[in-house]
């Protein structure tokens, strides 16, 4: 028995919650390193401060995948309870994040935020496979990418919008996150919970008995328990997952480098507006520590030092707003990629492997161009447009290829286990991998983006390892 094909708006509603998920990810990706710098983190330590994010994914996603496969609630179904729980926790973390008073507090909230987003995200991937026949799965993942693109662009532009349009200040005292960023995170929290509720209230899931009918057999496999099942899945993962894992490794290493180091790299190399170090302007005691007055206000060396710091900090904040805004372009171009692919795949067959290969090559080129455009921020539009083609493909093609080769009864678990190929490269990058490779090329922070470009090119050619015809070929519905 075949699953019925769904109409566009049915697929749109079931994917709409990804708008909120992407608001969380985009604010995190475009603004988190800025928050760390504002709170006094050294540039080379920023990737390590991000390590909580991939660690949360490594632990949470397989567990959530397993639990969502085993869950059935008469009102909320299988996946939707996890959407709702993740949205509530994520919204709380988003509200608190910009009010962090220290680096350790921001890093801790990043752990909570990323773990909470993961609770919502992987069940969304599995929901597409649950609801759609194989002939519509590429179409479904592409629509998810379309919604993700909208969320990326809007969320990345929020701090600049708050400052330029609503006149909310992007300046603050040393060590304090600007009000424009705080309001952006509040908006993100509202959008996150609101968009998840649209999916929860508008989408009906198939019951376990209906899923058995679609499979043509009952699921009689013995439940060995969560730990044994997850470990067993790691040990016996299909070949297609291992090959896609190599592609994912290089892809996500590249994007982690962008999320963690694009702001310090681009504000310095493109805008010539690095974050000023307060120690260079403030009065210091004999131990080199910053001195404060009775009200815990920093004492500057003199009035000119205070004015110089505020001028440089204003340039940095304006540059950071613009970097975040231009990073949002990769959301727009991924949306364009998804839109074109949606129309094309509704009528014509595609070779998923070659689509992914070509898209990753374009993204790698986008990163490499950044080194050659100091002082020319407008060229970042081209760079992030190319990067968006890669991002749009990363969010759709690997999952479409994998879902064509996995049993639906294990879809949530498999999607969660597949996440190891997303988080492991990020952990390696966070533990010093990206900074180490960057310094092999040169001391300039822009070389982190060069490393990202090289890794995306390696990811592109790794697609040639994939030979499973069922995974590669897509026929329209």
UniProtKB/TrEMBL annotation:
Q: Which GO terms describe its cellular component?
A: membrane
Which Pfam families does this entry report, sorted A to Z?
MFS_1
Stretches that traverse the bilayer: 12-36, 48-68, 80-96, 102-119, 139-156, 183-203, 244-262, 327-345, 354-373, 379-401, 413-440, 446-466
Alphabetized UniProt keyword annotations: Membrane, Transmembrane, Transmembrane helix, Transport
Annotated Gene3D superfamilies: MFS general substrate transporter like domains (1.20.1250.20)
Q: List the molecular function annotations (GO) for this entry.
A: transmembrane transporter activity
Cytoplasm: is it a keyword of this entry?
no
Membrane topology, record value: Multi-pass membrane protein
Name where it's found: Membrane
> Does Oxidoreductase show up as a keyword for this record?
no
Q: Which PANTHER family match?
A: SOLUTE CARRIER FAMILY 45 MEMBER 3 ISOFORM X1, SUGAR TRANSPORTER
Name listed for the protein in its UniProt record: MFS transporter
Name its species.
Christiangramia salexigens
């Amino acid at each position: 028995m075949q699953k019925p094909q769904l109409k566009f708006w049915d697929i749109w509603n079931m994917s709409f919650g990804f708008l909120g998920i992407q608001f969380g990810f985009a604010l995190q990706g475009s603004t988190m390193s800025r928050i760390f710098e504002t709170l006094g983190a050294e540039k080379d330590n920023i990737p390590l401060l991000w390590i909580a994010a991939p660690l949360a994914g490594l632990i949470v996603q397989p567990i959530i995948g397993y639990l969502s496969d085993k869950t059935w609630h008469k009102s909320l179904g299988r996946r939707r309870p996890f959407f709702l729980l993740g949205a509530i926790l994520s919204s709380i973390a988003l509200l608190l994040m910009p009010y962090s008073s220290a680096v350790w507090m921001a890093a801790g909230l990043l752990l909570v935020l990323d773990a909470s987003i993961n609770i919502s995200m992987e069940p969304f991937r599995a929901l597409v496979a649950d609801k759609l026949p194989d002939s519509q799965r590429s179409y479904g993942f592409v629509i998810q990418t379309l919604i993700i693109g909208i969320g990326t662009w809007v969320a990345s532009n929020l701090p600049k919008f708050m400052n330029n349009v609503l006149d909310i200040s992007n300046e603050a005292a040393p060590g304090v996150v600007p009000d424009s960023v705080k309001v952006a995170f509040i908006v993100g929290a509202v959008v996150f919970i609101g968009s998840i509720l649209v999916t929860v209230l508008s989408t009906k899931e198939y019951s376990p008995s209906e899923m058995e009918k679609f499979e043509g057999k009952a699921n009689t496999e013995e439940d060995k328990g969560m730990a044994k099942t997850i470990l067993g899945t790691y040990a016996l993962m299909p070949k297609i997952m291992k090959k896609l894992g190599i592609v994912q490794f290089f892809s996500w290493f590249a994007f982690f480098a962008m999320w963690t180091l694009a702001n310090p790299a681009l504000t310095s190399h493109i805008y010539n507006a690095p974050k000023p170090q307060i120690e260079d302007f403030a009065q210091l005691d004999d131990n080199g520590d910053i001195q404060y007055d009775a009200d815990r206000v920093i004492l500057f060396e003199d009035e000119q030092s205070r004015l110089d710091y505020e001028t440089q900090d204003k340039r940095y904040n304006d540059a950071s707003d613009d970097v975040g805004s231009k990073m949002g372009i990769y959301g727009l171009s991924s949306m364009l990629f998804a839109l074109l692919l949606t129309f094309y795949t509704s009528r014509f067959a595609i070779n998923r492997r070659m689509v992914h290969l070509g898209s990753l090559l374009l993204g790698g080129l986008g990163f490499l161009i950044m080194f050659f455009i100091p002082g020319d921020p407008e060229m970042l539009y081209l760079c992030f447009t190319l990067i968006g083609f890669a991002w749009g493909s990363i969010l759709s093609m690997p999952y479409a290829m994998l879902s064509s080769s996995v049993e639906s009864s294990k879809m949530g678990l498999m999607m969660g286990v597949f996440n190891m190929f997303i988080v492991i490269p990020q952990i390696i990058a966070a533990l010093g991998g990206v900074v180490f490779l960057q310094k092999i090329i040169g001391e300039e922070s822009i070389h982190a983006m060069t490393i990202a470009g090289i890794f995306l090119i390696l990811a592109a050619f790794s697609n040639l390892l994939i030979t499973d015809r069922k995974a590669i070929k897509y026929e329209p519905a």
